[in-house]
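Inputs:
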Amino acid sequence: MKKINVKTKTRIEMIDVTSEVSRAVKESGVKSGVCVAYVPHTTAGVTVNEHADPAVAEDILDALSEHFPHRRNWRHTEGNADAHIKSSLIAPSITIPVEDGRLTLGTWQGVFFCEFDGPRSRNLYLQILNAE
Amino acid sequence: MKKINVKTKTRIEMIDVTSEVSRAVKESGVKSGVCVAYVPHTTAGVTVNEHADPAVAEDILDALSEHFPHRRNWRHTEGNADAHIKSSLIAPSITIPVEDGRLTLGTWQGVFFCEFDGPRSRNLYLQILNAE
Amino acid sequence: MKKINVKTKTRIEMIDVTSEVSRAVKESGVKSGVCVAYVPHTTAGVTVNEHADPAVAEDILDALSEHFPHRRNWRHTEGNADAHIKSSLIAPSITIPVEDGRLTLGTWQGVFFCEFDGPRSRNLYLQILNAE
């Protein structure tokens, strides 16, 4: 398993980690299989979406915060209940096929580490499995 | 890896692809493992839910559109920001166990390709891994 | 594949199944790979989130029910449309890496079976794959 360190800079942001994940797949030598990206944190997530226009990520974050706002009368008293909710909605793991030694990302797709309670130093785990 | 082509007919719909995914699992010859279904698009997703009553899929789509509506003042100017948001909430990938050569779907479960910005010609990738 | 039985006690709750999933991983003998947890039901899901403070799970459930309420004029006439919606948002499957024979859960992370239409007797399937 490989570990990627991600340093986030604001409370809530989506960080494009496509090149780091692609490099790990290449280094694994796996030609056909899957890459599982996993976030070992309860206030962050991982997703795949458009990385050509940064406005897409901003819209996703705005939409989440509009419905699950930061400051509110949540039961969890650490002030980050919204981040836990966002984490389970986006999910802490995603699985992407690998073919011909590469992630099978579509033309506009990139992999994003989703920070919901930063800034922090975070980890993203990558487990790459062979299909054969 | 196998590719399924899905032709969607309206802007937002859930298309039952259970028989196509089941056939791919059978053809793979894998007896025990998992099937990863992956959408290489940023305005679509894949989920598993009830496919006996079509009203279930309609309720899911209505609920998503109520909270993340199509026409609104989003930052992304292509007019489909809502579709990107729905994609990350439903997620572009799902992993289903395979046992005795078949998907371990529950009685009421079917696999759905979720179109959020159609109609389009779409792909669904299937990577089937052996557990042994 | 292993099956865990989960008896839920109320209509909507998150049940910590971390110890059961961890035991299955240990018993599998897999040292490096992934564990896929899969829910064969259309009104339940599985997620990973904080299991130190039970208020986190309550906030997640409250937030979901606030936006996707139980009693409302849904099309699906069985009275549990909200549970189907919650199931697809949380998702019926999650994939967690296994390393050194253990789930790579972060410090605060636990695995939760999410009941959205209980009480019922439920199943959670675990398929554990080897990375080598």
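The longest helix of chain C spans residues 54-67. Flag for discussion at group meeting.
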